[in-house]
Design a protein that fits this description.
By secondary structure, the chain is α/β, with parallel strands linked by helices. It has 11 helices and 16 strands. It is globular, with a radius of gyration of 20 Å.
C-alpha cells in the first residue's frame, strides 16, 4: 500500500491554477492563485513552483491560462493558434533546463492544433487535458515509488539531494516517492538530506516534507556525503532529475554530480527517479543539455543579507550533469532502467 502524502503542489480549480508558494517554506505555508500566463511565467522563473514534474504541469496550466486570455480578445482561430504558440515559447523560456516544461507546453500546443472545433472547444479540451495530466502525475509517481521500494534494503539509510518530493511534483514525489513507498513497507528506513546550496531546497523543503510524514530524516551539508559514505552510514542514493539524455546522462540540481562521484568511489548504489517525460530522447548526451545560470544573489545572500565580500566574483549554474557511467539505474513508471541506458531507454519508449 502506498504511503499517502497530504501535499498537493499544484491544482487546477475553476479558471485558476493554485500552487504552494515554495519560496516561503518552511517558515510559512501559503497557496497562491495564478490567474494569467504572465503570472505563471513568473511563478516558474522565480521558483514559487519548482521541480521538473511540477514545472511541467505548471506549463500545462499556463497554456490554459494563455488560451483563456486570448479567447477573450481573439475570435479568428488561425490568429488564436498563432498567438497561443507565442505564449508557448514564452512559457518554455522561463526555465530552460527542465524538459518537463517543454513536454507539458508542447502537449497542450499539439492538442490545440489538432482540435477541429471552435476556440471555445480548444479551451475546453486544454482545460480537461490539464486536469488529466495533473492527476496522472500522482499515479505515475506512485508507480515509480513501488518500483523503487523493491530495491531498497531493509533498514536502509538513503541519501537524497535537493527536493524531488511532493513539492517537486503534483503530489507524492519521484525520489521521495521511492522513500515514501519504501517507508510504508519498512518503517526502519531513514533518510539523509543534503542541504543543497545555494537555494537550500534540501534543508527547506525535503526535511519539511519528510518530517511532516514522520519519516526519520537527518540534515547534512553538501560537503558531508563522502564522510558518511566512508563510515558505512549511507546504503544508497536516490535523487530526481530535470532532464535525462538518450544515453542516460542526467541533469539535476547542482551538486548531484559530486554526490555521484562519491557514491561510485564508496560502492554506494546511485539511482535516479524520474518519469519518462523527463527523458529527452532528442538529445544524445548531457553535453546538449542547457544549464541555467541563476542570479548571483542566490550565492551572495541568505535571507537578504550578504554572506561574502561584495567584490568577489560569482558563477551560479543551477544544475550539473551526472554522466551515465555513475548511475546504477533510472527508476521510472515503467520499471527500473539499467545500463546500457541507450537500449533500456529506447525500449521503455517502445513498450
Amino acid at each position: 500500500m502506498a504511503f499517502e502524502s497530504k501535499i498537493k503542489t499544484i491544482e487546477w480549480i475553476g479558471n485558476i491554477s493554485r500552487i504552494i508558494d515554495q519560496t516561503l517554506l518552511p517558515y510559512e505555508f501559503k497557496t497562491v492563485d495564478i490567474k494569467t500566463c504572465d503570472e505563471m511565467y513568473s511563478a516558474i522563473k522565480d521558483m514559487l513552483v519548482r521541480g521538473a514534474p511540477a514545472i511541467g504541469i505548471a506549463g500545462v496550466h499556463g497554456m490554459v491560462l494563455a488560451a483563456l486570455e486570448l479567447g477573450e480578445k481573439i475570435k479568428d482561430k488561425k490568429l488564436f493558434l498563432e498567438e497561443l504558440n507565442k505564449k508557448a515559447q514564452y512559457l518554455k523560456s522561463s526555465r530552460p533546463t527542465a524538459v518537463n516544461l517543454m513536454w507539458g507546453v508542447d502537449k497542450q500546443m499539439e492538442l490545440a492544433k489538432n482540435i477541429n472545433g471552435s476556440i471555445e472547444e480548444i479551451i475546453k479540451n486544454l482545460k480537461a487535458n490539464g486536469i488529466k495530466l495533473e492527476n496522472e502525475d500522482i499515479e505515475i509517481n506512485k508507480r515509480m515509488g513501488d518500483y523503487g521500494a523493491s530495491i531498497v534494503p531493509k533498514g536502509a539509510a538513503i541519501l537524497t539531494h535537493c527536493n524531488a518530493g511532493a513539492l517537486a511534483t503534483v503530489g507524492y514525489g519521484t525520489a521521495l516517492g521511492v522513500i515514501r513507498s519504501a517507508y510504508a513497507k519498512d518503517p526502519t528506513i531513514k533518510v539523509f538530506a543534503d542541504e543543497t546550496r545555494p537555494r537550500q531546497q534540501g534543508a527547506r523543503l525535503t526535511t519539511w516534507e519528510l518530517t511532516q510524514d514522520g519519516i526519520p530524516t537527518t540534515l547534512i551539508t553538501d560537503g558531508m556525503c563522502s564522510y558518511f559514505m566512508s563510515k558505512g552510514m549511507i546504503d544508497m542514493v536516490v535523487v530526481g532529475a530535470d532532464r535525462i539524455a538518450a544515453n542516460g546522462d542526467t541533469a539535476n540540481k547542482i551538486g548531484t554530480y559530486t554526490v555521484a562521484i562519491a557514491a561510485k568511489y564508496h560502492n554506494v548504489p546511485f539511482y535516479i527517479a524520474a518519469p519518462l517525460s523527463t527523458i529527452d530522447i532528442s538529445i544524445k548526451s548531457g553535453n546538449e543539455i542547457p544549464i541555467e545560470e541563476r542570479s548571483h544573489e542566490e550565492v551572495t545572500h541568505i535571507n537578504g543579507d550578504w554572506i561574502c565580500a561584495k567584490e568577489v566574483n560569482i558563477i551560479n549554474p543551477g544544475f550539473d550533469v551526472t554522466p551515465h557511467e555513475l548511475i546504477t539505474g533510472i527508476i521510472t513508471e515503467k520499471g527500473i532502467l539499467k545500463p546500457d541506458f541507450k537500449e533500456s531507454i529506447k525500449n521503455a519508449f517502445q513498450n
